[in-house]
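Aim 2 progress update. The chain analyzed this quarter is reproduced below.
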Amino acid sequence: MLTKRFFKTKDEAEVTFEFSHPQAKKVELVAEFTGWEPVTMKFNKKERAFKSKHRLPTDKQFHFRYLIDGEQWDNDHKADAYVTNSFGTQNSVVNTQKIAM
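Predicted structure tokens:
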């Protein structure tokens, strides 16, 4: 699940990536904005989910995936979009475009 918070005075969004997997001991966020290097997500015991917050530039799209226990890939089931990658699977997409209310 993705949660976004936009700032009035900054051209960035704080995006919280949240992923639940009952048997996972470790979940890593692997994304364009991390240079495709895995970033370990923190486990929130109360919510029983792995979380990671990142500040990203607004009005852009970023591809990402989750790596479970260093061997299984999965997507965010609430991502903004999905695109086919060069491995024949799909990447999740987070869109940081501000939506006027």
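The chain is about 0% helix and 50% strand. The chain has one domain: 2-95. These observations will guide the mutagenesis experiments scheduled for the next reporting period.
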